[in-house]
Design brief:
The chain is 45% helix and 0% strand. By secondary structure, the protein is mainly alpha-helical. Helix 3 packs antiparallel against helix 4. The two termini are 42 Å apart.
Length: 130
């Protein structure tokens, strides 16, 4: 479970702005009871019955749009997944090493990766453990 901390300082000079911020903070921290004034008739709250009636987009879109548009909407977005993606790690490097790679601009982490790959390739049969 994650926690959201919201700090808003209300100064007395901008009372209209403060009222707006108070309203927004109430929206962020709404209780489970819905405020009838905030309810949206076009987008009602989903309940168990609504979930039972729901259908996947691949079943619904062809009835609404042409096949071509439906296929375009159903196409996965974003970059294709890599077979062997890079792994996020924490590593401690000396100040000089970091400054050397950062001095040549953006992409310094990629250049460190390339330098390490080059080192591994230059020692194909060696045992790198100490």
């Amino acid at each position: 479970m994650s926690t959201l901390n919201l700090e808003i300082s209300f100064d007395q000079l901008n009372s209209e702005r403060n009222e707006l911020l108070r309203g927004l903070s109430n929206l962020v921290f709404m209780s489970k009871k819905q405020n009838p004034e905030l309810a949206d008739a076009e987008n009602p709250t989903w309940n168990l019955e609504t979930f039972k009636k729901s259908r996947p987009a691949k079943e619904v879109l062809p009835n609404i749009f042409s096949d071509q548009i439906s296929q375009e909407l159903l196409k996965p977005r974003g970059r294709p997944r890599l077979e062997t993606p890079k792994e996020r790690i924490n590593i401690r490097l000396s100040y000089e090493v970091i400054q050397h790679f950062k001095s040549s601009g953006a992409g310094w982490q990629t250049r460190i990766d390339a330098a390490l790959r080059e080192f591994i390739q230059s020692k194909p049969n060696s045992d790198l453990r100490r």
